[in-house]
Amino acid sequence: MAQQKFDQAIELTESGAKLQLRHGQVLCGAELALLLVETFLKAEVKFSPEALARIRDVFECFPREQEETAAEWVILDRDSPETQGEPSNERTEAEKAEAERAAIAKSRVEGCSAFLKQALKWSKLSGGPNMGAPEIHDMLAEYVWTQSPSPSLSTVSRHFIWGSRPEAFASALIDVMKASHLHEADLVVTRGVLQYLAVGKLWDATQLLDEVRHRCCNNIQDDDAPWLPDSPLMHFNRFLLCALERKSLPLFSMLRKKYQKSLSRDPSFEKYVDEVGTRFFNLRRPPMIPGMFGDLLKAISGED
């Protein structure tokens, strides 16, 4: 009898969430979506393709920005060339409309994020992967990055990393590269490669680097792809992956010494390389100094 009630609750919350979301009632729909996952937890629903399909079906009903991705949004600037010369009341109306649009998008993202983070918790507790289902990480990373009015890679990088789509992470990195100075492009790529490697994901790191280089060099899928410098840091990335594929500690140590100056361009790189040495060669991890990097590594490999 109890199981029958749980089954009914699951059907009702799922259908209700999808109905509300399809009609743009995000607040109510997100609450029902959360209730669906909480029912999963109470009913001790085991992680399975069928249960995961319910999560995905609800996720796909969350509304999306139709015209452009959030990474391309531009908040109008009073002093920008686009607004100079316009009557002040027209600028004000445009700014108000943009602010309202951003607030609506922010609400959508928060509702979807809360639902998917709870779904990650369920997947970990119900027999799924220790870090949560990669499919749910993929959903969360993609929605937050493409739908947020002010996307921040630091808030979603761990979901890209624990997901299963390096090509999606590559797209996000390219978005960041477009908004960065030219001399920072290799820093953006290296950070992504090292973050994958710091959690032991060599195949994903290789796919990420290949995808970024392919798209930047050939303008694949993106005529406005950023320029990727042929820098020492990019050489380090390629050689590091070779060293790890060959399980060569001497080559790893030599690369670290040879490219020390390039790695020093970002204080976090040395710490990431320390973690790579621990993961792939069982090197002793240096004492972690409390601070920003420790928090960053915890965010990537630990809990939200």
From TrEMBL:
Annotated GO biological process: protein insertion into ER membrane; root hair elongation
InterPro entries: GET4, TPR-like_helical_dom_sf
Transmembrane segments: none
Pfam family, one: GET4
Region (Disordered): 75-98
Biased composition, class Basic and acidic residues, residue ranges: 88-98
Family: Belongs to the GET4 family.
PANTHER family according to UniProt: GOLGI TO ER TRAFFIC PROTEIN 4 HOMOLOG
Annotated protein name in UniProt: Uncharacterized protein
